[in-house]
Amino acid sequence: MDILDTDVWSTWPRGCGDMLPKVLQTRLANKPNLTDEHLRDAVLEACALVDEEFLCWARQHEAMDGSTLLLALVYAEPGGAYRLLVANVGDSRAVLCRAAKEPLAPQPLQACRLSEDHKPNRPDEQQRIEALGGVVDLYGVWRVFCPSQVFFGGRAIPRWGLAVSRAFGDLLLKEPQKYGCAQVRGGLVTAEPELRVVELDPAVTGSVRFVVVVVSVVRIRHSLRRR
Question: Would you tell me which of 39, 49, 144, 215 could form a disulfide with 120, CB atoms 3.0–4.6 Å apart?
Answer without folding.
Answer: 144
